């Protein structure tokens, strides 16, 4: 089932999410719905707060990035198979040089800006079967994880922009929170409800 994606301005996107237990109700259905929702919106990652659930869970599928011709063949192959569920994750360390990449977000349609992040991360998480993993990721795989991880910490990529960039996109962000945008997937707008 395709779920509406929560738009910028909804308080759930600014809350630090809570951990879940292995017996979380209907977890497998939730994961199926999240993947369906993400694919419908042409995303490469989706965090539970983006569908209105303040829990420490996100999914990724970086297949679309694997078609980037600027990447090495090794990087393309790594991203081709990079489809995962992250439950109760903790980033243990971020290392390497900071590098810029133009990021976007399904909760903030039509806004794309360069964000600086470290190139390598080490993360501990549970998969959909609640099996624990500790893994290291680099490059775009690390970036997708960092972006989604920020969501469960209540941080949006726009929070990482300079004050000048924030001022330049302020009008766009206001329009998004009021539902005054034209996009091709279902969304839930915080201020549109108040006006009804």
Describe the structure.
By secondary structure, the chain is an alpha+beta fold. It has one domain: Peptide deformylase (Peptide Deformylase). It has five helices and seven strands. It has helices spanning 27-40, 73-80, 139-152, 163-177, 190-194; strands at 5-6, 45-47, 57-61, 83-105, 108-126, 132-138, 187-188. The strands form two sheets. A five-stranded antiparallel beta sheet has the order 2-3-4-5-6, with helices on both faces. Strands 1-7 form a two-stranded parallel ribbon. A hairpin with a 5-residue loop joins strand 5 and strand 6. The chain is globular and about 40 Å long. Removes the formyl group from the N-terminal Met of newly synthesized proteins. Requires at least a dipeptide for an efficient rate of reaction. N-terminal L-methionine is a prerequisite for activity but the enzyme has broad specificity at other positions. This is Peptide deformylase. Fe cation binds at residues 105, 147, 151. Pfam families: Pep_deformylase.
